[in-house]
Amino acid sequence: MIIDGAYFKVRRKRVGTEAALCAVGITEDGQREYLGFIQGQRESREAWEFLLTHLLRRGLDSNKVLMVVSDACLPVRQGCPGILAAIRTIFPYSDHQRCLFHKMGNLQAKCPKTEWPLIKAKLRKIYYAPNSLEAKAQTQMFIEEYREVYPALVKCVEKDLDACIVYMNHPPTR
Length: 174
Description:
globular; 5 strands; single chain; 7 helices
């Protein structure tokens, strides 16, 4: 299951932004199913728990949710800490996968624009490796190459590597 919040401008008494919290499921045969969404003012733990428990009440089997993908990462110092707490509460036996799209955006911000195409190619070798052993080997090579030049980038890669490659523990669909 993939969960994320999208922000939209709304006009009530004045113009502001509100979040729409969304959940999309991926079936065993690789098809997407839109499971639900709610309008929330913020991406709080309470709002995420409300959406996820709503899905359970509508018939979602928590035992069949093998992995939840979101943009928050561990440790909870950035992103939305409420989303991780809600995942751990409602789906305690599901793995948590860090969204690689959001992760790549975080990494791109930590290197010069001119270097990004090369660095992106090397990061893809990590995050799209055939297995976790290869991903970790690629990570070590990346760290050795960039530790001195871009320490903030390397620290960001190291910080939640395991959460970025959780999907490798699950067989591919289709």
